[in-house]
């Protein structure tokens, strides 16, 4: 079985709620819902890839410590004074959170710097796949590259 890699708008919630192992991608205001989904379904959500998160409600802030899946938070910083507060808080308060800033990139990073976003998110998904396979959450073994990295 191979995990799905879905954006929030492309059916991530439906896939997760049906029990399909899924890497959930979300951006802007959808980030809050993706976090709620990951907390509710930690055995099905394999990772979160969150782009340009908007400020989130207090109930989501309270859930961040409960997120147990590897989480990549990507944000663009078009200028030195860009506000990265929401993205920094997400990555900092999630136990397996990783924060990446794409300096000088216009917002949103996932469309304006698609190549960088794709490289970061693809690498992160590969790592999360290896971790999930090692933990028995996936039936397919990780790629040889990932197997070598985990030894």
Automatic annotation (TrEMBL):
InterPro entries for the chain: AB_hydrolase_fold
Gene3D superfamilies for this protein: alpha/beta hydrolase
Official protein name in the record: Uncharacterized protein
Source organism: Gordonia rhizosphera NBRC 16068
């Amino acid at each position: 079985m191979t995990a799905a890699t879905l954006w929030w708008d492309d059916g991530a919630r439906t896939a997760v709620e049906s029990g399909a192992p899924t890497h959930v991608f979300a951006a802007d205001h959808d980030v809050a819902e993706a976090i709620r989904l990951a907390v509710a379904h930690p055995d099905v959500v394999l990772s979160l890839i969150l782009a340009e998160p908007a400020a989130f409600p207090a109930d989501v802030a309270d859930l961040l410590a409960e997120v147990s899946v590897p989480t990549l938070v990507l944000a663009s910083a078009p200028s030195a004074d860009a506000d990265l507060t929401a993205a920094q808080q997400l990555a900092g308060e999630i136990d397996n959170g990783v924060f990446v800033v794409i300096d000088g990139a216009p917002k949103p990073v996932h469309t304006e710097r698609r190549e960088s976003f794709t490289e970061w998110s693809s690498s992160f998904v590969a790592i999360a796949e290896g971790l999930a396979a090692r933990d028995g959450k996936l039936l397919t073994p990780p790629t040889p590259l990932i197997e070598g990295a985990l030894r």
